Amino acid sequence: MKSRNYSTGGPFHHIPVMLNEVLDTLALRGGNVYVDGTFGAGGHSKGILDSCKCNLLAVDRDKKSIEIAQELKKEYDDRIELHNQSFSQLPYIIDNTPYKKIDGLLLDLGISSLQLDNPDRGFSFQKDGPLDMRMGSQSFTAADILNKIREDDLAMIIRELGEERHSKLVARKICEYRKNTKIISTYQLNEIIEKSIGWSYKKQKGKHIHPSTRTFQAIRIFINQELEELILVLSRIAKYINSEGRIVIITFHSIEDRIVKNIFSDLTGQNRAISRYQPENSNENEKLFIYPIKKFLKPTDSEILMNPRSRSAKLRCIERTKSAFRENLDIYSTNKYEQILSEFR
Ligand SMILES: C[S@@+](CC[C@H](N)C(=O)[O-])C[C@H]1O[C@@H](n2cnc3c(N)ncnc32)[C@H](O)[C@@H]1O
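That's the Ribosomal RNA small subunit methyltransferase H sequence above. Prediction below.
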């Protein structure tokens, strides 16, 4: 495996996670068209563009990322096209290009160091800032939600999207606090969480997870509809991938990894019972996708040492076969949190 290194993002450095593995599993070839659906600070995009004479559609819902991408545009000119949109919109983006189909899609999920390290974005409990947490241009912030949402809805979100065992207690304390004082900052929220469940995390010796990690993660995923975005793109993208094209996804927590694993199982015909993508006669040659690598890849120990943020990463990959695409169905429901969100619109 060739070793490449890129740190991008100007003053807020972002080191692309599993860069070598991404470039290798995408099986890049000159003349092909690739999509980086999570451009971030452009580390992976730069790696792709430097690997061969291919074309790249760079997509990010964050305006700041697309501003950074202007630098790459100067360098790679007409080989890179920028789109300040959500990756769930990829079918429309690809339909509007002359290519109509692509040879590979990369999604490196979650937030970038640019977003996490900037206190004004409100993603980090370690930096004081406005409780914002928006990746793109949604109309409501984390503060809007936290000061209004029903206690039982909040507890459900913290339990399901953060896997926080004490979700009910955290939700109750947040709702009690906001009766007297509006919650507007990351430090305020961090303090409420630490006071309510800090004791439980002190008891878990050896595990270095901060009491606020799970609740902040849950609220971020909810605000940005991260699971809905992932489900939408994966259930619509298959027919846009040329044969031998690959989908490569890096996840950072078990909730999104489970979604990727399940939908990949459907697309490769492993979940026989529920797959509606599979051609009726599903012999090996008619599968829409196959697994070119076994299960998933993890970062090497030396990468984790150099970039601790990579430690929870898992890379999964599937490859499009030559089988004809017969169905175009959005088979997964994304309505679960939609109703709660609609009350804030
Ligand atoms: C982990 S970072 C990607 C870092 C990037 N691979 C690099 O090397 O710099 C994730 C990026 O994806 C973006 N993002 C997350 N969800 C998105 C979505 N649904 N649509 C478009 N961009 C999204 C975030 O705004 C963030 O910039």
